[in-house]
Design a protein that fits this description.
It is built from 5 helices and 5 strands. By secondary structure, the chain is of the alpha/beta class. It has one domain: 3-Layer(aba) Sandwich (Glutaredoxin). It has a 5-stranded mixed β-sheet with strand order 1-3-2-4-5.
Length: about 140
């Protein structure tokens, strides 16, 4: 049992560090990792995996309800989709560029092609559908 304890502790530590997450980014990060709206005149995604950018504020109730959904989905789509969040109160430059005047708003950015912006806190199943079909190009499931 004593020999198993260090292995168990190490396994738990590795599992915790491998956890995907929604990363909070600044306007500078956004320009470096997603799109440089100051220099590029047409859309040119700078990432290599599709991403989601959650525009939020800390005082917004719907934003707080959306946050755990995004956290959970970042686990489900780990390695396939990158999840970011931008505090529009703190990062007004990027919010202004995208015309964010109500929150939450979510920017879905495919690896190739133009992004799509949604307004409001969508339920998890709607976000999953957007990720699967729009970002990952999966065919919609047929219902009987």
């Amino acid at each position: 049992m004593r020999k198993l304890l260090p292995i168990l502790v190490l396994a738990c530590a590795l599992a915790m560090t491998a956890r995907a997450e929604v990363r909070s980014i600044t306007s500078d990060d956004f320009r470096r990792e997603v799109f440089d709206y100051r220099t590029d005149t047409t859309w040119r995604f700078r990432g290599n995996k599709p991403c989601i950018v959650d525009f939020y504020t800390t005082w917004c109730g719907p934003c707080r309800r959306l946050a755990p959904i995004m956290d959970s989905l970042s686990q489900v789509y780990k390695g396939k989709v990158v999840f970011y969040k931008v505090d529009t109160d703190q990062q007004r430059d990027v919010a202004r560029y995208f015309g964010i005047n109500s929150i939450p708003q979510v920017l879905y950015v495919p690896a190739k092609g133009k992004p799509a912006l949604t307004k409001g806190a969508y339920p998890a199943e709607n976000i999953v559908q957007i990720i699967d079909e729009f970002l990952l190009g999966k065919k919609p499931k047929k219902t009987k």
